[in-house]
Structure formats: structure tokens, C-alpha cells
Design brief:
The protein has 104 residues and is mostly helical. The chain has one domain. It has helices spanning 2-23, 28-31, 60-79, 96-103, and strands at residues 34-39, 52-57. Strands 1-2 form a two-stranded antiparallel sheet.
């Protein structure tokens, strides 16, 4: 959806993101999840709670802001070498194989 809408709403969304970062405030609606329960297919008795699957729906606009902040933090951490060299989790150009080699 965002890919199709971006030519029309992109400038407005960027303004929202920049304003949110400048004010150091995230709207409450962007942080509120909606829990929806779905029935698992093929179950005989829907009076048992285990036959339902809860799904958490988050506003997608907040996911874009979170990804932007994560990218900025990652850039700062890598640029200024703020993480120890033996930290491999969620870092670019770091693999599980390299972590295992360091461990061995």
C-alpha cells in the first residue's frame, strides 16, 4: 500500500516523521496495537480458548518511523565504532560464521 501511495503522501509522511523526531514525541495512536482473534481452521469446538489465534495489528506508519530510527542508530554505531568488535547481532557485514569463529 505504501509503495503505491508514496508519490502522493510521501512528503506529508516525511514531514510527520521529521516533526516527530524534532519534538521527541510519538503519537499515542502510532504505539497502540489492536489485538484480533482468529479462529484456527478445522477445530471442532470453538468454546475452548486454545482454538483462537491472537494477531497483533500495529499501525504501519509507526513501523516506517521505527525503521528510520534504527537505520540512523546503526549508522552512528558503525561510523563511530561504538559497539565492541565481538558484538555480532544485527550488524551489517557480520555473519553467524564469523561469530562462531571468534568464539572458537
Amino acid at each position: 500500500m505504501w509503495r503505491e501511495l508514496w508519490p502522493v503522501v510521501g512528503d506529508h509522511v516525511l514531514w510527520l516523521y521529521n516533526t516527530s523526531l524534532e519534538l521527541q514525541h510519538t503519537p499515542r495512536q502510532w504505539k497502540t496495537a489492536r489485538i484480533v482473534t482468529l479462529r484456527k481452521p478445522g477445530k471442532a469446538d470453538y468454546t475452548i480458548p486454545k482454538v483462537f489465534r491472537p494477531i497483533s495489528l500495529l499501525p504501519t506508519i509507526s513501523k516506517g518511523l521505527g525503521a528510520t530510527i534504527a537505520a540512523r542508530l546503526s549508522f552512528i554505531m558503525e561510523t563511530y565504532s561504538l559497539l565492541p568488535s565481538n558484538h555480532f547481532g544485527a550488524r551489517p557485514r557480520r555473519s553467524t560464521e564469523q561469530a562462531l569463529n571468534a568464539l572458537v
